[in-house]
């Protein structure tokens, strides 16, 4: 889903950039637990470079570990005729397979950083976006083929296309939705100059956590299923039956975990106490709310309500593929984390391109080497 079919072809970059994403998420969570990482995060550019360096090291370690797991799984697999896939199993095969897959992920990490530094948009996000979108033509072709053989009617296809359009529109609407809290800055007189006295707003995103909750939830649910694959007992078989993707208990647990991680990650990303302290420091206040503790409580209350709306929206989009596959027998995976990532990356890239074009427009308007001069008197 994230690698654009690289795992099915077992390419050198089969792991994709997911080790890098996992390493970045792990370090983001560890900043709450480890005070040293939290201090690095607050040191600005220098601290960000240090955390990026730690992320790279952790990415290589995770990619090598995942490569070992894939190599170990390949040794136990057989072909359609019962032939052995790995002719010479052992630690030499496992080590070199893990090394090759880790090298592929490291190359993608480097390529993403080069795109971020020299291009427009986030390079890692664009690589994931490309891996998701590249499978779209194949999905459309398989859908048309199914309709030709009569397994899907034209009415059903038109309904699915309309539903896809509405879902993409809904995701764009929710990803850009904000709750704006009015903020008023008091006037301050410094010498002969007056500062403040302006009105602005504090934007709170409805989906502050982004795509992190479904990634965390799916990873947590897949861990026990992975463990049960190595054990053949009646209990593990029952557990596998009830908690396999598509089962009712699995989808219910998925929704509950998405809501939990939405609140958890929002609490990590946004601290109402710090925001209230910064507003108080700069003379800002929310009309009708006292600065300090009451402002922090008010922001936390509003954020908790809109986070519930955002979590339910993410859960609905992530459960959508299961409904489409079961009800309409769609041959492609539409919805879920991949669609959230694709739409979010497209929106972010368009905003950055627009900002770049605006800056270039003003530069062209001023002319090469031109400067804006103030009015001269006397």
Fold topology:
Blueprint: H1 6-9, H2 18-33, H3 35-41, H4 45-75, H5 91-118, H6 123-133, H7 136-148, H8 154-175, E1 178-185, E2 188-190, E3 193-195, E4 199-205, H9 212-228, H10 234-242, H11 248-269, H12 272-281, E5 284-285, H13 293-328, H14 336-366
Antiparallel strand pairs: 1-4, 1-5, 2-3
Helix pairs in contact: 2-3, 2-4, 3-4, 4-5, 5-6, 6-14, 8-13, 8-14, 9-11, 11-13, 12-13, 13-14
Main attributes?
378 residues; mainly alpha; Preprotein translocase SecY subunit; 2 domains; 3-stranded antiparallel beta sheet; 68% helix; globular; disordered C terminus
What's the SSE pattern? HHHHHHHHEEEEHHHHEHH
Characterize the largest beta sheet: strand count, sense, and whether it forms a barrel.
3 strands, antiparallel
CATH topology of the largest domain, by name, is Preprotein translocase SecY subunit
Q: Are there runs of 5+ residues with pLDDT below 50, and where?
A: 369-378
**How many structural domains are formed by the residues?**
2
Structural class, from helix and strand content?
Answer: mainly alpha
CATH C-level of the largest domain: Mainly Alpha
Q: Going across the major beta sheet, what is the strand order?
A: 4-1-5
């Amino acid at each position: 889903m994230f690698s654009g079919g690289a795992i099915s072809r077992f390419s050198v970059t089969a792991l994709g950039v997911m080790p890098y994403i996992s390493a970045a998420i792990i370090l983001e969570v560890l900043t709450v637990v480890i005070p040293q990482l939290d201090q690095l995060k607050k040191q600005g550019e220098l601290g960000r470079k240090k955390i990026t360096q730690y992320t790279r090291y952790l990415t290589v370690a995770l990619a090598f570990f995942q490569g070992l797991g894939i190599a170990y799984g390949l040794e136990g697999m057989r072909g359609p005729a019962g032939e052995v896939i790995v002719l010479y199993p052992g630690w030499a095969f496992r080590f070199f397979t893990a090394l090759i897959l880790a090298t592929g992920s490291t190359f993608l990490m480097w390529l993403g950083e080069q795109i971020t530094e020299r291009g427009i948009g986030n390079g890692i996000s664009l690589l994931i976006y490309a891996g998701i979108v590249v499978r779209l033509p194949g999905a459309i072709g398989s859908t048309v083929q199914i309709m030709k053989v009569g397994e899907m009617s034209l009415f059903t296809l038109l309904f699915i296309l309309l539903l896809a359009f509405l879902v993409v529109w809904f995701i764009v609407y929710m990803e850009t939705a904000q709750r704006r809290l009015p903020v008023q800055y008091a006037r301050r007189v410094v010498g002969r100059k007056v500062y403040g006295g302006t009105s602005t707003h504090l934007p709170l995103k409805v989906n502050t956590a982004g795509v992190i909750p479904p990634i965390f939830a799916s990873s947590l649910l897949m861990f026990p299923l992975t463990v049960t694959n190595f054990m053949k007992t009646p209990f593990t078989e029952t557990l596998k039956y009830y908690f396999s993707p598509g089962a009712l208990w699995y989808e219910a647990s998925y929704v509950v975990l998405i809501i939990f991680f939405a609140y958890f990650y929002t609490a990590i990303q946004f601290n109402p106490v710090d925001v209230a302290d910064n507003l108080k420091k700069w003379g800002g206040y929310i009309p009708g709310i006292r600065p300090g503790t009451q402002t922090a409580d008010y922001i936390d209350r509003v954020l908790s309500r809109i986070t519930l709306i955002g979590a339910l929206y993410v859960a609905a989009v992530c459960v959508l593929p299961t409904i489409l596959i079961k009800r309409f027998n769609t041959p492609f995976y539409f919805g879920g984390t991949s669609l959230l990532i694709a739409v979010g990356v497209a929106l972010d890239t368009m905003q950055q391109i627009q900002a770049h074009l605006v800056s270039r427009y003003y530069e062209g308007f001023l002319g090469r080497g031109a400067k804006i001069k103030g009015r001269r008197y006397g």
